[in-house]
Design brief:
By secondary structure, the protein is an alpha+beta fold. It is about 50% helix and about 15% strand.
């Protein structure tokens, strides 16, 4: 009885575990549907992109953060505010390129991989590829085109999960056809 009471007292932990398990079921279903790791990676990124496009509005409303002045400031906001707000973690920003247009997010405790082991024969699967899509979709909505890819993955034996973000270009505000 006392164990249930202590678990119920922290709804964030319960919600996080529920999210992790639900995400695992989603990935498992995609593996059954597509049977090809690269196709599953594309589907996860596409889903993440659609989430990111919508999530940015919630983030901007809840964080009261203004427009970032440069890519370095964007990296700090992503790491210290966005990841903290939605996943309860703070990745380390590192490995900046000399031009300042590329950096890595190092995640020591990826909550998406709790309770997970990659099945045999799925070495090309980027299990947390949803994160790449979320970042790409959210940044596109604030006029930044970026490439996001996995460099290291704890599920594949690496010490950290590393996402690499590369700034491609600033997007112009587009007015829908027929509207002025």
């Amino acid at each position: 009885m006392s164990r249930q009471a202590s678990r119920a007292s922290d709804p964030r932990k319960v919600n996080g575990e529920l999210f992790t398990l639900t995400y695992g079921a989603l990935v498992a279903q995609l593996l059954r549907d597509f049977e090809d790791d690269e196709e599953v990676n594309k589907q996860l990124e596409k889903m993440g992109y659609n989430i990111g496009v919508r999530l940015i509005e919630d983030f901007l409303a809840r964080s009261n953060s203004g427009r970032c002045n440069d890519f370095r400031e964007t990296a700090d906001v992503i790491s210290k505010m966005a990841f903290k707000m939605y996943l309860g973690i703070t990745p380390v920003v590192s490995n900046w390129s000399a031009a300042g247009d590329e950096f890595s997010l190092l995640i020591e405790n990826n909550p998406l991989i709790d309770f997970v082991e990659l099945p045999d024969g799925h070495n090309a699967l980027n299990y947390s590829n949803l994160l790449c899509g979320v970042l790409k979709g959210a940044l596109e909505m604030v006029q930044m085109e970026v490439d996001v890819k996995f460099v290291q993955d704890q599920l594949k034996g690496d010490s950290v999960t590393e996402l690499r973000l590369k700034f491609v270009k600033r997007l112009e505000d587009a007015v829908p056809v027929g509207e002025d």
